[in-house]
Amino acid sequence: MMMPPKQDDLAARMDPSKQRPKAFNTGKGARGPSSKGDDASSWHETAEQKQKRLQDEMMGIGKPSASGPEPVRPSKSAKEEAAHRKIQEHVEKTRGPSLLDQHKQSKGAEVEEDDPSKRAFDREKDMGGSGHISSSQKRQMLNKAAGFSGKFSGGTYL
User: Fold this and answer.
1) Are 58 and 86 within 8 A, CB to CB?
2) What are the tens digits of pLDDT across the range 28-70?
3) Cβ contact 60:68 at 8 Å
4) 57 exposure class (CB count in 10 Å sphere: 0-12, 13-18, 19+)
5) Whole-angstrom Cα distance, residue 75 to residue 65?
6) Where does the DUF3752 domain lie (predicted)?
7) Which of 4, 6, 64, 155 shows the greatest Cβ crowding within 10 Å of its Cβ?
8) Cα angle for residues 81, 83, 89 (degrees, 5° grid)
9) Given its phi and psi angles, is residue 24 left (phi above 0), alpha (psi -120 to 50 degrees) or beta?
10) What is the pTM of this model?
């Protein structure tokens, strides 16, 4: 006759009455709405209730839905606008020109030369001028390109 195996595993040694509770439904959704303004009643309202709620919102009777338009905030008063304008005028008088303006003035004085090696490729500037390559330009381009094979070949380490 065959005997069942001995229970030497961990589950047999643990007391089932001292098990820790299972972590279930303890996440962010189990805590309920994040703010008091959130209303989850739309999840379990009937079609008639929804229609009545929407009609009430249109008439301005009930509270507006959270996804509706935000309330209009009052514009600044004349006193606040005058104070803001006064501050801006004072700042313009006391401060010198901005760093951006200074930089533009210093760069404007220098003559900007168009060196293609110092800028990104621009089709209009680089290709637009001449659609024809002379033999000397072709030879010069081939000489420049001759060294590219060494750049993309495998390295020699020893």
Assistant:
1) no
2) 767 766 665 556 666 788 999 999 989 998 888 866 555 555 5
3) no
4) middle
5) 24
6) 4-153
7) 64
8) 100
9) beta
10) 0.23
